[in-house]
Every structure is written in structure tokens, then in C-alpha cells.
Design brief:
Blueprint lengths: L1 E5 L6 H13 L2 E6 L3 E6 L5 E7 L5 H13 L3 E5 L10 E3 L9 E3 L8 E7 L11 H29 L2 H32 L1
Antiparallel strand pairs: 1-3, 2-3, 4-8, 5-8, 6-7
Length: 195
């Protein structure tokens, strides 16, 4: 028996992962995703666990290689969009991305910015990034788009003397600060571990 749910989480990766894990606890396993669609099939409760990762900075080749690497490790992966873009022929500039990922189109990584990763539940916490260096790099990857938006909106707010753009820059500051705090936290844990 399959079950279809329609949800949109945007950039709230933890909320999306928590919801998927709650569905698993209720006995549903993800089988297909769409723009807002999550399709599940019945399984044993808590049979699988999920992790959601942002890969929007990667080039198409690197994103595919990473997904294949995870599948080779025994995980099941699903590509997912982070935004709702219903038009055809979209192009997005990503100045914070790695070489080859600067320009996202329908043929590359546009609407494929997230990876939902599923593994058999072994009772241990599911983390894709386990070393402190990997965690710090990943949080920087999450912070950089928000930091770019913050600087862009702040610059235009100053140039145009716009309160609305100033508000957008303040809103962009919230995730930038939260991810920076996580980076600082990981650095402190790494220093404690080294001692």
C-alpha cells in the first residue's frame, strides 16, 4: 500500500529529516519524490532512518558521483528540490559553488539541490559527516548561500535606500548566524578532542 504526502520544507533540512524519520516510525518508507510529493510504501516501523543533505554547490558530475558513492555504501538516495520552481528553462547563478556548479540549469543541478539518504536503522545516529573537518566544511557550504544573499541585499539596501531590501538582508542574516554558530561549535569540539 502506498501513501502520498505533499509537503514543502525549503531550506529547513532538519525539519525535513525529522518528518521523514517520523514517517519511518509510523511504518512508511520513502519510494519516490517530486517537487512537493513524497510517496511512501508500508514497511516495519522504524525499519529505516533518513538524513537530508544540501548538495547545491556541487557540479552535476560531483553530485552524481557522491550519490553513487553513497549507493555503493548501501544507502538509498533521492534527489530533491530546495525551491519551488515550476517554469521551464530556468538558470541559476551560484557564485558560492565549486567549479562546474556556478551555473545550475535544468540539465545540471537545478531542482536537485538536496539528497535524501536512507539507510537501514541500526539504532545508531545517522550522520553523513562524522569528522570535525567534514562537519565544518558542510556547515560552511550551508552558510555561504545565505551569507551571499545577506551581502547582496545589504548592498542593494544601501545603494537604493530601501527598507524592504534591508529587511531581506536581516532575514538572510538569521541562517548565516546560525550556521556560523554551528561552525564555531564544531571548532570548539575539535579543539577539545585534540587536548
Amino acid at each position: 500500500m502506498s501513501k502520498k504526502c505533499y509537503r514543502f520544507f525549503g531550506g529547513l533540512l532538519n525539519a525535513q529529516a525529522n518528518w521523514l524519520n517520523q514517517m519511518s516510525q509510523k511504518g512508511y518508507r520513502l519510494v519516490r519524490t517530486g517537487r512537493m510529493l513524497y510517496e511512501f510504501e508500508k514497511c516495519n516501523p522504524d525499519e529505516v532512518t533518513y538524513c537530508v543533505e544540501f548538495i547545491g554547490e556541487k557540479s552535476k558530475d560531483n553530485a552524481t558521483d557522491y550519490a553513487n558513492f553513497l549507493e555503493d555504501m548501501g544507502y538509498k538516495v533521492f534527489f530533491k528540490n530546495i525551491n519551488l520552481n515550476y517554469s521551464v528553462g530556468k538558470v541559476r547563478l551560484r557564485p558560492w559553488a565549486e567549479m562546474g556548479g556556478y551555473i545550475a540549469t535544468n540539465a545540471t543541478t537545478f531542482n536537485r539541490e538536496l539528497l535524501i539518504v536512507e539507510k537501514a536503522n541500526d539504532g545508531k545516529p545517522f550522520e553523513l559527516h562524522t569528522s570535525y573537518a567534514d562537519k565544518e566544511k558542510y556547515y560552511r557550504t550551508l552558510r555561504n548561500p545565505w551569507l551571499f544573499l545577506l551581502l547582496l541585499f545589504a548592498l542593494f539596501a544601501i545603494i537604493k535606500h530601501s527598507i524592504a531590501l534591508g529587511i531581506f538582508s536581516l532575514v538572510s542574516a538569521i541562517p548565516s548566524i546560525l550556521y556560523q554558530l554551528q561552525i564555531i561549535n564544531v571548532r570548539q569540539k575539535a579543539k577539545t578532542w585534540e587536548k
